[in-house]
Amino acid sequence: MIVRKLNEIIETEREVFASNGNWRSRRFLSESDRMGFSLHDTTIFAGTKTLIHYKHHVEAVYCVEGSGQVELIDEDRVIPVSAGTMYALNQHEKHYLVANTEMRIICVFNPPLSGTEVHREDGSYAELADGG
Ligand code: 9YT
């Protein structure tokens, strides 16, 4: 059994910051835990707009604090997100995540992240096989 507490993750290699400063992700479970998914406690900073396109992963996001919206790029559709909203990117949807306030979201990725990835220019994470 794996037990981890937030204060054991902060300021370790399990705490990752986006290179553009838009978010911080605390990765409770990652690929090396062999669970088949990764689990993150992520903060999206207020006033940010982040391009996301997970070509190699599916992701579920459960918002527990704050509010914002998902703007789907290939559809004329905006999904409001606030505490209590879950959305799942089951079709690798390309989108912007806009944070109106600071948002705290719980994210699950399949396949799991290795743990230290930050977004690439196109909003994706690499497949583990191509080097993270
Ligand atoms: C919703 C989303 O994917 N935000 C970017 C950070 C990501 N959740 C992560 O790596 O924890």
Any descriptors?
132 residues, mainly beta, six-stranded antiparallel sheet, four-stranded antiparallel sheet, 10 strands, 44% strand, binds (2~{S})-4-acetamido-2-azanyl-butanoic acid
Put the structure in a nutshell.
By secondary structure, this protein is mostly beta strands. The protein contains no helices and ten strands.
Report the strand count: 10
Give me the oligomer status.
single chain
Shape: globular
Low-confidence parts: none
Helix content: under 10%
Radius of gyration: 14 Å
Ligands (ions, cofactors included):
(2~{S})-4-acetamido-2-azanyl-butanoic acid
Mean pLDDT: 92
Class inferred from helices and paired strands: mainly beta
Work out the strand percent: 35-45%
Order of helices and strands: EEEEEEEEEE
Q: Major sheet: size, sense and barrel closure? A: 6 strands, antiparallel
Order of strands across the main sheet: 1-2-3-10-5-8
Task: Give the distance, in angstroms, between the N- and C-terminal Cα atoms.
Answer: 26 Å
Number of helices: 0
